[in-house]
Amino acid sequence: MSQPSLKENGPKHVAIIMDGNGRWAKKKGLVRSMGHERGGNQVREILRAAFDLHMDQLTLYAFSTENWKRPKAEVSFLQNLLVKFLKSETKQLNEDNVRLKVIGDTTAFNKKVQKQLEDSKEALQDNDGIVLCLALNYGSRHEILRACKNFALQAQENPGHIEELNEEIFSDYLYTKGMPEVDLLIRTAGEQRLSNYLLWQLSYAELYFVDVFWPDFTPDHLQEAAENFINRDRRFGGL
Ligand code: IPE
Ligand code: IPE
Ligand code: MG
């Protein structure tokens, strides 16, 4: 039997909780925003590495529904950083044939963010390479409740839908509609929790926790995670 390879057996859809920007900055005696800035720069490199490692989709947790609890100045910095990132990167992303998707309720962000997201998504919509999916104002509990509400509205009109509801149909009410299953979840910075990320979608994903802050997470770390994944025995409840 041939050796498992990243191309054949590696994770195709990888979700990442990019954690530890603040602690990275603190360790260096810098303000938290510097950590976010460095973290943003890291995205570019990791996306390229993901492509080289034969991944099809990278779903990055960039702002959670709980992150509004942070000081106003930090929330505002993060929104500006997102606009800056997309403004400066969209051209290159296009050259790299990257598609951009967003999960989460972006209507809560300022107008500049919403406009830039629309512009970037539109600019990249005809590409068919790796998918960069940004989780923005994303929270699983919100997502599942939203799905239930939307389903209930449909069921009100057509009660037959209740009998027909199954996992596949329910998945279509989530932000991740149409996306492939998540194979591997990576969380940086040592914390071992999901923080309301993709709770439905991670049901059978492999979990990988790494003890480096996001700004220090390199392509080598991503490769290690992918290689670790290959050696896992995924059983999905079977034998
Ligand atoms: C992750 O880094 C980035 C976001 C949540 C936006 P943190 O800002 O959570 O950094 P730590 O966890 O405080 O170190
Ligand atoms: C999760 O990190 C959210 C993002 C990475 C965007 P947090 O730093 O917000 O999570 P907690 O507070 O440690 O659970
Ligand atoms: Mg954190």
Task: Give a brief rundown of this model.
The protein is an alpha/beta fold and 239 residues long. The chain is built from nine helices and six strands.
How is this structure best described in words?
The chain has 239 residues and is an alpha/beta fold. The protein has a single domain (6-140, 181-230), classed as Decaprenyl diphosphate synthase-like (Undecaprenyl pyrophosphate synthetase, 3-Layer(aba) Sandwich). The protein has helices at residues 6-9, 21-27, 32-52, 72-95, 111-124, 140-157, 160-164, 167-171, 219-230, and strands at 13-17, 57-64, 99-103, 131-138, 184-187, 206-209. Strands 3-4-2-1-5-6 form a 6-stranded parallel β-sheet, sandwiched between helices. Strand 3, helix 5 and strand 4 form a beta-alpha-beta unit. Helix 2 packs across helix 3 (32-52), helix 3 (32-52) runs parallel beside helix 4 (72-95) and helix 4 (72-95) runs parallel beside helix 5. The chain is globular. The chain binds 3-methylbut-3-enyl trihydrogen diphosphate (2 copies) and magnesium ion (MG). Residues 18-23, 63, 67, 78, 189 line the site of one 3-methylbut-3-enyl trihydrogen diphosphate (IPE).
